[in-house]
Every structure is written in C-alpha cells, then in structure tokens.
Design a protein that fits this description.
- This protein is of the alpha+beta class.
- The protein has a single domain, classed as Aminopeptidase (3-Layer(aba) Sandwich), CATH 3.40.630.
- It has 2 helices and 7 strands; from the N terminus they run ββββαβαββ.
- Strands 1-2-3-4-5-7-6 form a 7-stranded mixed beta sheet, with helices on one face.
- It is globular.
Length: 119
C-alpha cells in the first residue's frame, strides 16, 4: 500500500499502482483552523477495509502541514441525505456530527453538514 499526499489531495494505492481511493480538501479559514473535505472516495470493491480511515488520517496530516503553526480545529463535509447513505454512516463512525442542513441546493434532497472538532 502506498499513500501520496500533495497540497489538497491524498491518493491511496494498493497492489502496486492500482488506485483505490482519493480525498481532496481545502483550507477554508486558516485563522480558524477550518478545513473542508471536498471529496473522499474509495473504490466500491475496496470499501470496508480501512482505506477510508487511512485517507482521513492522511488528509488530517496534510491539512495540518498546510496550516503550519495554526492548529487544525474543525473539519467539515457536506453529503446528500439520499444518495450518500454509506458516506453518512462512514463520517458519523469517524466522529463527525450532523450540525445543519441546506435544502436549497438540490431539487430532491438536502445537503447535510457534518463537522469533526479537534480541540
């Protein structure tokens, strides 16, 4: 297994160079230590093997490096309430809490906002 991290992106490879997952993030407020997970995906054939958790841990490390001396305080992610059932279960299992919803984005579902605090 190999993990590659560049600013804003983590990629996970297994079995040589076969990509199985990727996560992207953006520091939305460096002064507040706030980071948004833009995407986190693991190939469906490789799910439930700890790869998502590895991606998150690498994402946190990359975000901390990007923040420099400022602490990582909060990470947030938005997921659809209908199409992202597995993602909702994953993030809540990783310690994220539902803090709000936005019903004005999609026609047939709400976006649910989840946050994990580090302080």
């Amino acid at each position: 297994m190999r993990i590659e991290t560049t600013p804003g992106t983590v990629q996970l490879f297994v079995d040589g160079d076969r990509p199985v997952g990727r996560a992207t993030w953006v520091v939305t407020d460096a002064g507040e230590g706030l980071v948004q997970i833009v995407t986190i995906d693991v190939d469906p054939a490789d799910q439930r093997r700890g790869h998502g958790r590895r991606l998150l841990q690498s994402l946190y490390a990359g975000a901390r490096a990007e923040l420099g001396t400022r602490p990582l305080r909060r990470v947030w992610i938005a997921v659809g309430n209908k199409v992202h059932v597995v993602a909702r279960a994953f993030v809540t299992g990783e310690g994220y809490h539902h803090v709000g919803s936005n019903g004005g984005i999609y026609r047939d579902q709400d976006l649910l906002i989840y946050v994990k605090s580090f302080d």
